[in-house]
Amino acid sequence: MATKQMLLVEARGAVEWVTLNRPESGNALNKEMVDALIDYFEGLYEREDVRIVVLKASGRHFCVGLDLASGAFASQQRNPRNVWSVQRRIGRIYLAMRKCPQPIICLVQGAACGGGFSLALASDIRIAGESAKMNAAYIKIGLTGCDMGSSYFLPRLVGTSVSSELLMTGRFIHAPRALAVGLVSEVVADDALKSAAQGFIDDMLLTSPMGLRLTKEALNFSVDASSLEAAMAVEDRHQSLLALTDDAVEAGLSFFEKRKPEYQDPDTRV
């Protein structure tokens, strides 16, 4: 019940559209929403029926961050053990987003602050509405700006200079500059976010299911690879595996025959 209330999940074929559903609070992360996000993203790992996830939000804002004013987080006794427990539990969301094999397209409108900013950062593709503004709000409440993966994701997306500015000041980065520094792929009118996502979805669905999953895996590995040789070793492994599948043959035939491919997958037949 909590998942249905906090997250609205709509399946459209092999794509799931996941909506943060606390618009009255700016989609702030309370305990129930944290639990729902953990359950959803951790559950994706073995779900071959889902090829792509679109993460969006209802209401004016994407996610204003952790809900400090209500629920279990506010009532927790302030001691190191409890704070550590809450911190690690919320962090499971972002780890699961990176580990799940499905690409995640994030649609950001309004504010994406703190943990909401990290939801966008942990996604694979970000599309911003014209109203979007994002910040590492943690430092504004007496904490470090480095939280929920922000110190990992942000420098890899925009470099250390812009990351230092955003993490050390808590300043907002608005949609035009986010596009200029490569933080988002597109900026569109807020009411065009869904249609902008559909273009990415259509292109991804033309790829083989296993090829798409392994592309995300290789990208995540290569970001932290110790050398070019290490990154290429993973690429060689994936390409050699996929080249022998029926789906690779189908992809080639459909290209030359100018038609949409009909993939067999799962895991794919050889």
Keywords:
alpha/beta; 49% helix; three-stranded mixed beta sheet; six-stranded mixed beta sheet; 12 helices; 14% strand; 270 residues; single chain
Going by helix content, strand content and strand pairing, the class is alpha/beta
H/E element sequence: HEEHEHHEEHEEHHEHEHHHH
Radius of gyration using CA atoms only: 19 Å
Strand order of the largest sheet: 1-2-3-4-6-9
Please indicate the percent range of residues in DSSP E strands (runs of 2 or more): 5-15%
- Largest sheet data: 6 strands, mixed
Taking pLDDT < 50 over at least 5 consecutive residues as the criterion, the unreliable ranges are none
Mean pLDDT, rounded to whole units?
92
**Structural shape:** globular
Say how many strands there are. Answer: 9
Tally of helical runs:
12
Distance between the termini: 41 Å
Roughly how much helix do the residues carry, as a percent range? 40-55%
Describe the overall structure.
- By secondary structure, this protein is α/β, with parallel strands linked by helices.
- The protein contains 12 helices and 9 strands.
- A 6-stranded mixed sheet has the order 1-2-3-4-6-9, sandwiched between helices. Strands 5-7-8 form a 3-stranded mixed sheet.
- The radius of gyration is 19 Å and the shape is globular.
Q: Helices, strands, pairings?
A:
Elements: H1 2-6, E1 7-12, E2 15-20, H2 31-43, E3 52-57, H3 71-75, H4 80-99, E4 104-108, E5 111-113, H5 115-122, E6 125-129, E7 133-135, H6 150-158, H7 160-169, E8 173-174, H8 175-180, E9 186-188, H9 193-205, H10 209-223, H11 228-243, H12 246-256
Parallel strand pairs: 2-3, 3-4, 4-6, 5-7, 6-9
Antiparallel strand pairs: 1-2, 7-8
